[in-house]
Amino acid sequence: MSRTILIIKNDIKRRLKSPLSTLLFLIIPFAMTALIGLIFDPGAGGETKLPPIKVLLVDLDQNIASKFFIGAFDQKQLKDMFQATTVSENEGEKLMKKGKASAMIIIPERFSLDLADQKSVRLVVVKNPSEEFLPAVVEEFADTMAVGFSALAQIFADEIKIIKLVGNTSLEKISFAELTPFLEMSRVKIMAIKKFLSPLRIGLKTSVMAKPGQVSKAKGFNIFAYILPGMLIMFLLFIVEASMREIQSERADGKIRRMMFSPLTTHELMLARIFSGWLLGLLVCSLAMAMGALVFGIDWGDYFWLFILVAVTCFWSAAFFGMLNAFFRNKNQAGALASPIILVSAAFGGSMLPLEQIPSSMRWLAGFTVNNWFITGCREIGAGAIPLVSYGVLLVSGLLFGLVAVMALQRRLTT
Amino acid sequence: MKKIFHIAHLDLKLTIRDKAFFFWFLAFPMFFILIFGNLYKSNPADKKAALLIVNQDRGQWGNYFVKKLESPDIELDVRTSVPEKIIRMLVIPADFSEKLVTQNSQELQLRKNSAANMEAGAVAETKIVQAIARLLSELIIYGNRNIEDFFAAHTPFNDLVSIETRLPKDTVAVVPSGFDHTIPGTIVQFIMMMVLIYGGVMVLEDRKNRVMERILFSATSFGELFNGKLLGRLLMGLMQAAILIIAGKIFFHLNLGNIFLSSLVVLVFTLAMACLSIFVGSVLHKEELIVAVSVLAGNVFAALGGCWWPAEIIPPTFRILAMVSPAYWAMDAFHQVIFFGKGLASILPNLLILLAFTSVFMVLALRFFKIRE
After folding, report:
1. Can you list the domains of chain A with their CATH numbers?
2. Which tens digit of pLDDT belongs to each residue from B268-311?
3. Where would a tag sit more exposed on chain A, N or C end, judged by fewer CB atoms within 10 A?
């Protein structure tokens, strides 16, 4: 036992002597979490806010309906969402060709008059081809405005006709007695609108459903808590792998062979290696989680269950890379294969992007990755549950890998 | 010149012979393209929102409202009970008709699965709001007449205003696919990563194993050695780009606009990365460190530069910050060539800025380039 402890002490001491690469691998997940988190930081309502959408408005109509349409963009809610600028058609086309706005809405000539005559009219939305989401938002908005304008034109069809008539006739020829029935009709319609809209007769309430154990992006949602576990496990694997790769260096420079001349057994050697990898991982992961709580304000949940999860995950990582390094022939082979394994595991396990974004036909692969079990475990603990399945899967597979590692190293050292 | 080519060719050969070459240069970037391309694909057919309607209404207004919801942009699935698996669901309550007739306010419930596509969800929500607006308009126009006679006597809503969408004149003719957005980003990111990692590590190994020292014992000059190393890294980046462009053309019908201009962007960007990789390989003394620094720099530059997600969703502050990333200028040039069909004059400022990056990295690489440890 004392021999095992001596090797572990030596390993840790050596790592601490040149901690730069370990520190860098610790900084990377933080830098990435901070960057992604700040870009996609959801507002107070838990919804990710888009930057103001640049919209160009071209008014070829220059009449009441187009003024009304353009005026809508001055409302507080729409002002926060859109950055609207009125331009001429030529200027607008030039700016769109330069990609200076997400979209341009062209209100055609005779827009107001055609609406008054209950004729079909067409708004043109010119979309920026280099953008993917924002032009679609403008299109949907214009579509909704179109419904609104169609509704107003139909509700006030008679009144609009009168306004048009008044506009074309001199005041001397109009008798107010003739207008009274229309004014009364308008009053009835305005009252009807009020009745239907205040309060809204049919409203819509949207809610997001979450699977059991899955965090719903509702109030209190911390985007950093959503990203950091995935990033952390990916780079933890790199750190533990680098530590376990020492087996290759020691084999190459004959250190292991020399150690085998002492009463040390391969079991003890492998146990010491796995334990030092585990200890290093535990240290780094605990530090990263403490920093996550301090810097990003992440509420990890119950720290006892979290510690167990981190301990089991680090054991799995050390055992897995111990096994791989016992199989690899040399350092080059380890370097060439370990990183792809980590990255594939990260890609399918939910470290690079949320599992729900991965095509459903590939999602089953997540069950074979440590990333998935760690991320799921963190979320379950955060939601107040105990991730028993994650513990079980990681512990059992970790023990299995550890056992295979001991046998494989023994075989490699004796052949 | 022959010696420069010889050194570059040797570095390239060693890269191709690497066991993980296939994974790093093809398999992994292809995975990126596939995932992110599907994630951001902008084909209207893919955005079509599936909407499950659970119509529990006891009267006929529920069915009438469903008719108002019919639109080419949503795929309706009308049922009377809640199924087990739900993507997004609109519940029309049992007393929907009753409340409409008795003129009471009510709220429809739209429930979205947290795993469902957000864009399609937004489309569905907009269409529901539009359907509500249509129904309320009909009721307002119907006025105070007997509501029982509504279905026989009302005037149906007429969509007088419609929307026509198009792209700016003299730009692309076809709406770009998600892959047209993703592949240039992946090309830029993987040129950065591969040239920095492979190029940097090989400089370190050649220095440690005294390969460069031995080369200088031959008739090769320092300048030829440096240029050979630079050309080697340039070829590595170009090879990475070529692999992805060919794969993109074959599998995803990639549109790169004017291929000459796109290739020019790739060339200038790769040159900047080649210089940076020599600098990184010269100042760092451990393989792990080079990998860590390259992964950090590559990912941060890629994220800021708009390689991972559309630049339009990046907040304005980060867009300004992104200008420190060479990837930003390369991506901007790609956008101008691919999506706006611009010529050399338009991307010239981008190329000059990338050349300025190249100059800075070149000075650093020359200053720190070491033959021996």
Report:
1. 2-42+220-414 (no CATH), 53-197 (3.40.1710)
2. 999 999 999 999 999 988 888 888 888 888 888 888 888 887 77
3. C
Report which of A146, A148, A66 is spatially closest to residue A112, judged by C-alpha positions.
Answer: A66
**CB pair distance less than 8 Å for B128 and A126:** no
ipTM confidence: 0.78
Return the SS3 of A125. strand
Interchain contact, B318 vs A96, CB within 8 Å: no
Spatial contact of B100 and B154, defined as CB atoms under 8 Å apart: no
| DSSP assignments along B215-263, one per residue | HHHTT--HHHHHHHHHHHHHHHHHHHHHHHHHHHHHHH----SSHHHHH
Which candidate, B163, B162, B180, places its Cα nearest to that of B171? B180
**Burial label, A199 (beta-carbon count in 10 A; 0-12, 13-18, 19+):** exposed
Burial class (CB in 10 A: 0-12, 13-18, 19+), A207: exposed
Q: Is residue B213 domain-shared with residue B229, that is, in the same domain? A: yes
- With residues binned 3-state (H G I as helix, E B as strand, rest as coil), the percentages for chain A, rounded to 5, are 70, 10, 20
Note whether B217 and B360 are same-domain residues.
Answer: yes
Cβ distance B39 to A357 less than 8 Å, yes or no, reads yes
Using the structure block, give the residue that is written with the tokens 């609104």.
A148
Supply B252's token pair.
């995803």
> Is B44's pLDDT higher than 50?
no
Tell whether B37 and B49 lie within a shared domain: no
* Structure-block tokens of residue B278: 């020599």
pLDDT tens digits, one per residue of A49-90: 677 899 999 999 988 889 989 998 888 888 888 999 999 999
Which two three-digit tokens encode residue A40? 């996609």
Percent of chain B with pLDDT over 70: 95
pLDDT over threshold 50, residue A181: yes
Restricting to B residues 10-29, those with a Cβ less than 8 Å away from any Cβ of A are 18-20, 23-24, 27-28
Residue of A98, A95, A105, A101 whose CA lies nearest to A126: A105
- Asked if B144's CB is within 8 angstroms of A343's CB, the reply is no
State the DSSP H helix or E strand holding residue B24, giving kind and residue range, or none if neither. Answer: none
Optimal mutation site among A50, A124, A143, interface B, most CBs of chain B within 10 A: A143
Q: Are residues B127 and B215 in the same domain?
A: no
Are B263 and B238 in contact, with CB atoms under 8 Å apart? no
Dihedral of CA A162/A165/A169/A173: which sign?
A: negative
| Range list of H helices, A133-265 | 134-155, 157-168, 176-197, 223-244, 246-252, 255-260
**B84 at the A interface (CB within 8 A)?**
no
Amino acid A192: pLDDT: 76
Q: Starting at the edge strand that comes first in sequence, how are the strands of the sheet with A202-209 ordered?
A: A202-209, B106-113, B88-92, B49-55, B74-79
Residues 6+ apart with CB under 8 A from A364: none
Q: What pTM was estimated for this model as a whole?
A: 0.78
Please check whether residue B162 lies inside any domain of the structure.
no
User: CB-based contacts of B83: which residues, under 8 Å, 6+ apart?
Assistant: B52
Any chain A CB within 8 A of the CB of B110? yes
Q: What is the mean pLDDT of residues B134-157?
A: 85
The answer to whether position B166 is within a domain reads no
Instruction: State whether B22 and B49 are in the same domain.
Output: no
**Overall average pLDDT of the B89-98 stretch:** 90
Within a domain: residue B10? no
Do the Cβ atoms of B108 and A139 come within 8 Å? no
Are B318 and A38 in contact by the 8 Å Cβ rule? The answer is yes
Calpha distance A180→A173 (Å, rounded): 15
pLDDT, residue B230, reads 93
